[in-house]
Amino acid sequence: MSWKNIDLEHIRMEFVMLAKEEGMNRSELCRHFHVSRKTGYKWLNRYIKEGLSGLIEQSKRPLTLRNEISGEAVMEIVEIRSQHPSWGPKKIKEILHRSRGIKSTPGVSSIARILKRLALSESKGRGRKKSVPREKVISKPDGCNSIWTVDFKGWWRLKNGEICEPLTIRDLYSRYVLCVKPMKKKGTSEVEKVFSEIFSRYGLPDKIRSDNGIPFASVRSPVGFSKLSAWWRTLGIEHERIRPGHPEENGSHERFHRDIAIEIESEPSEDFETETVRLEKWRREYNYIRPNEAIGMKVPGEIYRRSKRRPDGIDLAVYPSEFKTDTVNKNGCILLDGNCVYISTVFSGIDVGIEKDSEGLIKIWFCDLIIGTISVNGEFILKV
User: Fold this and answer.
1) Do 166 and 288 sit in the same domain of this protein?
2) Segments forming the whole domain that contains residue 102
3) Is pLDDT larger for residue 7 or for residue 239?
4) What is the 3-state secondary structure (H, E, C) of the chain?
5) What pLDDT does 198 receive?
6) What is the reported pLDDT for 118?
7) 176 and 275 within one domain
């Protein structure tokens, strides 16, 4: 027992002894002890009923614990956590509530306490850096398929020595994972083939957000286009690039990669084919079983809907009748007044629009963007 409690009990005892004296003004006594009349009479009545033991500090713990957790619930919590090491208390609570048949679902704080006691919680570490407000305003999704995010997860080695590096595509609004496909090659043609399949299955997004790496972007080409993102533009898809060195601008996608690292990469499969099947199973679980805090603990499959925009017949590389058009050859050049002008091999095989203004300046259009100008002396000036 603390000294604080002992002192309090002595004060109560002294108060009661004085209050028992004949002729004692109890209201004045309460003022002297700096307590209300209600408190003073409560002490006196407890002494009359229970003696000095009634003045001992009583536990404020309720007789019945409202948040007492059954052994069954603890076992379920441990099982869910062992199957899904990246899931926190909120997701575990949602799963218990939905499908585990637990009559009284423990609260988030209770689940967190159990995980901590069993050494199953994840340490957040010290000295975590505070987020710095970004200068560039990144657009926010206003519905399904308004923004897709894409990246390569980063490779890991399988037990037979093969390399596994998945291409991941996700709808930012619903958090629905469209693709987790291990790639043996990361070239433009291989990635374009994957996107063709995804576009056929889910339709077209309004924007695709990526970093500035190949094959998504090229810092040396007009407006940062790569052959892949140039193709996206002909389909009416805007390419949104994050700033170099700022992965937090695609932070939701990075967090999703962390889940893959914990649940898949940490225990690799025997071979490439097995890991491919395993990742697809993980994708379905992520979409239809795993609650997501960002969408109110729903699962992405409850929210996501396919895009009504289909890739068939779309080609924005069509220009007004007053424009001259030319197809960029395999060397990245167009012919202008008999002269070969280099544009970029990124646009090889694609038509560009050529607009000449009244001052003789020539603007080169790709879809709805000006990618550069050609001066009077025939020099192409790249727009970055």
Assistant:
1) yes
2) 71-116
3) 239
4) CCHHHHHHHHHHHHHHHHHCCCCCCHHHHHHHCCCCHHHHHHHHHHHHHHHHHHHCCCCCCCCCCCCCCCHHHHHHHHHHHHHCCCCCHHHHHHHHHHHCCCCCCCCHHHHHHHHHHCCCCCCCCCCCCCCCCCCCCCCCCCCCCCEEEEEECCCEECCCCCEECEEEEEECCCCCEEEEEECCCCCHHHHHHHHHHHHHHHCCCCEEEECCCCCCCCCCCHHHCCHHHHHHHHCCCEEEECCCCCHHHHHHHHHHHHHHHHHHHCCCCCCHHHHHHHHHHHHHHHHHCCCEHHHCCECHHHHCCCCCCCCCCCCCCCCCCCCEEEECCCCCEEEECCEEEECCHHHCCCEEEEEECCCCCEEEEECCEEEEEECCCCCEEECC
5) 95
6) 64
7) yes
